[in-house]
UniProtKB/TrEMBL annotation:
Superkingdom per UniProt: Bacteria
Localisation per UniProt entry: Cell outer membrane
GO CC terms: cell outer membrane; efflux pump complex
Gene3D superfamilies: Outer membrane efflux proteins (OEP)
Predominant location category: membrane
Keyword terms of this UniProt record: Cell outer membrane, Membrane, Transmembrane, Transmembrane beta strand, Transport
Family to which the UniProt record says this protein belongs: Belongs to the outer membrane factor (OMF) (TC 1.B.17) family.
A GO term for molecular function: efflux transmembrane transporter activity
Name of the protein: Outer membrane protein
Species assigned in the record: Thiopseudomonas denitrificans
Length: 438
């Protein structure tokens, strides 16, 4: 089932690529289509998959007949001592031979054939895992760009508010209604906001560069998440259900399970080197001038060849111990992968659930901060609040707006990560998120 889903994922993705417009990359799916074409990590995984496709063929070769052709030519010179003197004879010898060897019993070759099939399945799983990783990397890079754009927007709004407050503080100081302290505080807040804005713009350049690395071209104007998007909790809402599904369906867990099976077969393959082998050998040969009295000779043979290994200097025993150690290593790596996957599922689930709770709290905090800014500005005009009070609530409002924007992206990314932990992440999930942008 996983193999079919993996093939569907790749075919769906490439089908999307074929109909994509490569000129404009303005939304999440467009960025993903470009990444499918240009991302080096994903391209490497596809190449590795093609390597895996060859493994069953190579493994099967050990069960099929091996045919070889041999040709040889030589020159000989013979000198004879006879009564009448010395006789020299020169002769050219040619020989040709064809041999066919059909393995009848080679247990090691049979195990290697099974390993070839397993290695192909492993390459398929790794390619599917790379496809899911690409979805996550594209989404994270896309969200990083949007998040920095939101941060810059919030800081520019804060800068405008600080400029108004600075102008008001200077005016009140000139009228004698405020001290120079108010002016200095407003100037300090304004300068600090400008410094934050410079840092945010630099971070935006780097975020766009990360997106360029994935797609091979500089991103255009990206679509942004709507402010009224409703984000729902994952279904089912029980974390243990997700953890159980992750421990079974996670692609890394499946790959590690398959690796353990491959090491099991490797142990059997090493042990099989102690066993005898039986081959059927068919040969046909021809010799020209094999000796002085024969002009040509031909021979044909068919038989059974038995080979019993007796002693190989300890290499076979040592390689068997090595295979046993590698199997034990794979066993512990599988257990570690299961534990890591369970933890990742819990973290992703908490990222969605806690993010939704945080989103509601921040939306309430934003409303309160808006009201606080208005009331403090009015209080400052009436002399009931200081400039520092106004600057503080304006800064708090800007922080809340920035957090609010980021938590939306974090929730959506955590949803994709949660599906990836159970091995069910597909481009369709990405398309559903893309529909939330405007």
């Amino acid at each position: 089932m996983k193999q079919k889903k993996g093939r569907w994922l790749i075919l769906w993705a490439w089908g999307v690529v074929c109909v994509a417009d490569p000129v404009q990359a303005d939304d999440l799916m467009e960025i993903y289509r470009l990444a499918l074409r240009h991302d080096a990590q994903y391209a490497a995984s596809l190449a590795q998959r093609r390597v895996g496709d060859e493994q069953p063929i190579q493994g099967r070769a050990g069960l099929l007949p091996q045919i070889s052709f041999d040709a040889q030519t030589s020159w000989s010179e013979t000198e004879y001592k006879v009564v009448t003197g010395t006789v020299e004879q020169r002769r050219q010898n040619r020989s040709y031979g064809v041999q066919l060897v059909q393995p009848l019993f080679r247990w090691q070759n049979w195990i290697q054939y099974k390993q070839g099939q397993q290695q192909k399945l492993l390459a398929d799983l790794q390619a599917e895992s790379a496809g899911q990783a690409l979805i996550l990397r594209v989404t994270e890079a896309y969200f990083n760009v949007l998040n920095m754009v939101d941060v810059i927007d919030a800081l520019e709004q804060l800068q405008a508010a600080d400029e108004l407050q600075l102008a008001s503080a200077r005016k009140n100081f000139d009228l004698g209604n405020a001290s120079i302290v108010d002016v200095h505080e407003a100037q300090m807040s304004h300068d600090r906001t400008i410094a934050q804005l410079v840092k945010a713009k630099s971070a935006l350049v780097l975020a766009k560069q990360a997106l360029t690395q994935l797609t091979g071209r500089h991103p255009g104007s990206l679509k942004r998440l709507g402010n009224r998007v409703m984000l729902s909790p994952p279904e089912p809402t029980d974390v243990e259900t997700w953890v159980t599904a992750a421990e079974r369906g996670n692609l890394e867990v499946q790959a590690q399970e398959l690796s353990l099976q491959i090491t099991d077969n490797d142990v059997r393959s090493r042990k099989a080197e102690h066993l005898p082998t039986i081959d059927m050998v068919v040969s046909q040969s021809m010799q020209q001038s094999p000796n002085a009295s024969t002009e040509r000779s031909e021979s044909a043979a068919i038989g059974i060849r038995l080979n019993i290994p007796l002693f190989s200097g300890g290499r076979t025993t040592s390689s068997t111990r090595e295979a046993l150690a590698l199997r034990e290593q794979a066993k512990y790596e599988l257990e570690d992968t299961r534990r890591s996957t369970a933890l990742a599922a819990r973290e992703a689930w908490a990222g969605v659930m806690d993010g939704i709770a945080q989103l509601k709290a921040l939306e309430t905090a934003q409303s309160s901060a808006d009201a606080a800014v208005r009331s403090n500005q009015k209080g400052y005009q009436l002399g009931m609040r200081t400039s520092a009070d106004v600057l503080e609530v304006q800064s708090q409002l800007s922080d809340i707006v920035q957090q609010l924007a980021k938590v939306r992206y974090d929730i959506l990314l955590a949803k994709l990560q949660l599906k990836a932990t159970v091995g069910s992440l597909t481009p369709q999930d990405l398309n559903e998120i893309n529909m939330l942008f405007e």
